[in-house]
Amino acid sequence: MSQFDFPRINFYGQAFINPGTANNNLLLPLLTYDPIQVKAILPPRIYLSPDLLLLHKLGGLPVPEDSPVNYDESVQPYIEIQPIDTPEKYKAWAKTPLGKFSLDEPYHELYQLVRTKRNQQPLTGNLPAGWNYYGGMEFGFEDVKVGSVAVPVSQTEHQLFTSNTPDCPNEIVAILGATIDLKNDKGRNSAVMIDILPTLAFYSQVFCDVFHVQKDGLSLLKGTPKKASLRFFNKERILNQEGVFGASGTFFSVIPIENLINSVHSPIFSLFQNYQPKTTLIKGVFIQYTLFEVKEDRTIDYHTLGEKANPASATLTGCITPWYEDDMMSIAMGRQLLPEIPFFNKKKLASFVCRIDTQRRTVSLDMSGSIPEQLVQEYPTPVYETYPLGELTLKLLEEENQETELGTFHISPSYFDRNHLLINGGLIEVSFKDKVFLTAERLEKGTLLLYGNSKTSEDSSEIAVLLMKESPFMIASDQAGMYAEQGQTEDEYRCYDFQKEPCQVRVYQRGKPFVGDISLTIMELKMTGVSASATVKPFLITQHFRDKQTLTFPTEQAANAMYVFYPAPPPVISEDLVSEIQRTGFFVSLRVLPKKEFGKYLDPSHTDYPTRVTFEVLYKELLQTSDLIFPMSSLITPFTEAYFKKGGAFIKQRMAPENWTNATYMPSSRDMSTEQWLLFCKWLEEIK
């Protein structure tokens, strides 16, 4: 059960996130990047609504007379911003507020007329490249330290040790206050965060080369984690903030024993072995962390900042626990509670997982990503505090609608303040030791309910409502973020490294693997065209889905797709799949990379083979997108023929499929197709 297990080492601090922002298309209908074909749009396009298309036909659209209406493969009309027609012009234009660049002056009136789909504001004044054009995708921990350690002291009791706990065992004192970072032996950060679908960012992944816990010069735990997966996304964590500023996300990862330096002899792993209450084999280290309280500077002036990154930061809280033989690597399965009725206005608690421990007679609730907060001070430094939810009551729904109270707990600045959240990682325990009549069978058959107070405004009166209800099933896959090649025939996908693997789905009921068949509907949300709206349709409807069943997905088209699971069956299957993803987290993501037609360079049977691969071809077909969309890459590795010839062997090692799982992989966006890799290899071969 991972984060619910002992020993549990809780840590907190800050994180920095350095995403490149030019690939998000946040200014639609202005389009600068094609996430399906993975290429920069040069010249950039503005897609025309029916009203603007009619205005153009009537001669009233403020564009140059020689700017025709074009139609893409989806027969969607657009106008090109024709003066922005070279890489140099594109990069200068992208970091200048729209309406301020001299070369596209004939389109400035159009920018004022066209409104973004996101907030219905004019394009004028917005930066096409977003607030972090020079982001290099890096992710790291800052000032992260161990705040507490929880260990079992008997089969029915555990103790939480902090720096203030008297008579703390020496082996725990040695861990408290230890620092955690993601730096390699050269002191450089060794992790990157990548959205698998840049315009549908509900699955982010962290590729990390080193996870290191140390204190006073002594290494307590060091190893290479498997990629971390974003599994629980809460868009309403900070009640009085919107968008990413109000959101939080919880990531999960593992370090297998074979990836640990000093293996089982590291001090933290020794602690796990000394205190573990289970007889199950420990196969590694489980890591969970939640990012929240995000801070970004969106008032960036690139002409003042120059070619520098503008990273975001976030508060971080997490834990390290044993990873057992039967556990998944990208999520902790358990009994999952889903939101029902809002607690304030339209705000709901986010889903969370819990575990019932019949030996300790407790229910452990992992609310690290669910405890709501408020921003109580914005300047000069943001200050956050726990929202006063008040008393919450956990109940068990049994046969004939009988509800049995298990216990209560409080969430408020007085009972569970922000510092408490940081120190213990947001894990709340509800004891039902006084409920001796509750047998393990009753607990396993019943449904968990969480009640609390709700109000519609600050001044309204509170009423008791059902806030959360346990889902009959919890569904997840360790292959939650997958890559495929367009037209591939195999039913396996790239997920954790260059070796492909099948997508296996796990089905749990009441915290245990389900035995038997369940009814399951899988809905598909897919984007196959740069301008086309995402399509929603059933992918699979079955009465006979089983735990550990594998899925095969269509790959005949390049696409960004998500597959959302509806178990058991639900009373209504909504086509608002984004809301369902946020509500349950029952989904997987698939990116089908486009097939490139490089036959004349690579295929001996092609009529024009062998055509020489020039550096100009290599730049256009492989490097230009990174140069325009992630310009930091070309600052680090100059995209010149001379540099590539000189450093070809080193660059090849960074781009090789075997390096895919490492933070140093190029391109870090991981959207290079096999054909593009072979094109690079062919160029390298021809220049020898």
Describe the structure.
It is a single chain. With 688 residues, the protein is an alpha+beta fold. Helices cover 16% and strands 35% of the residues. Strands 1, 6, 7, 8, 9, 10, 11, 12, 13, 14, 15 and 16 form a 12-stranded antiparallel β-sheet that branches. Strands 23-22-25-26-17-18-19-24 form an 8-stranded antiparallel β-sheet.
How would you sum up this structure in a few lines?
The chain has 688 residues and is an alpha+beta fold. Helix content is 16%, strand content 35%. It has 15 helices and 35 strands.
Overall number of strands:
35
Structural class: alpha+beta
Q: What is the number of helical segments per DSSP (H or I, 4+ residues)? A: 15
Shape: globular
Mean of pLDDT: 94
Provide the gyration radius in Å.
26 Å
Strand content: 25-35%
Count of the separate structural domains: 5
Largest sheet: 12 strands, antiparallel
State the helicity in percent bands: 10-25%
Q: Low-confidence parts, pLDDT < 50 over ≥5 residues?
A: none
